[in-house]
Each structure stands twice: as C-alpha cells, then as structure tokens.
Design a protein that fits this description.
single chain, 94 residues, alpha+beta, five-stranded antiparallel beta sheet, 3 helices, 5 strands, 36% helix
Length: 94
Amino acid sequence: MHMLYNSDSYAVVQIELPTSDVTLAVEHHANSLTRGGYEIVDKFARKELFIEGALAESFKEGVEALIETSPSIEEFDAYLERFAGMAQQPVVMH
C-alpha cells in the first residue's frame, strides 16, 4: 500500500497485489505483473471506494494530467469528489 494523497477531505491509497504464480505462467510476464487499484476515502462523508481495472486506469490518467497543471489542494479535491460520489462503503474503524 502506498499513501498517494492525504488532505482534510480525502485520502487516496494505491494498493498493489502480486498476481498468482498460475497467472504469471499463463501470461508469460515474469516480473512486473500486479493487480490492485485505488482506495479513495471521503473523510467528511465517512465512506470509501475501491476502484480497479479500467476505472482505475482512467483515474490514474486524470491524476497525471491534473498534476501537470500544478493543482491546488482544492482543485485536486474537486477531482476526487467526482469519484467519491460513487462511494457506498462506510469507513469503519476497528
């Protein structure tokens, strides 16, 4: 897990899990295959969302484009708000 962003409103964590050995043998890619995605936590709504696959790739591309413009915290939070609106899972502390 890698904490990518943490503001008063949101936190974004990148989660990478290694693929299984069976998948590696089938795919013929030995070293760099991973699966995973991004967890986006809306701190005020106390909800989280895990995105993976095509949506995660779209999220990553949007973040990279936004970073090129040197965004303010407010601009970055506004970008995250578009994804956080899909959050359904309540944040539960153990």
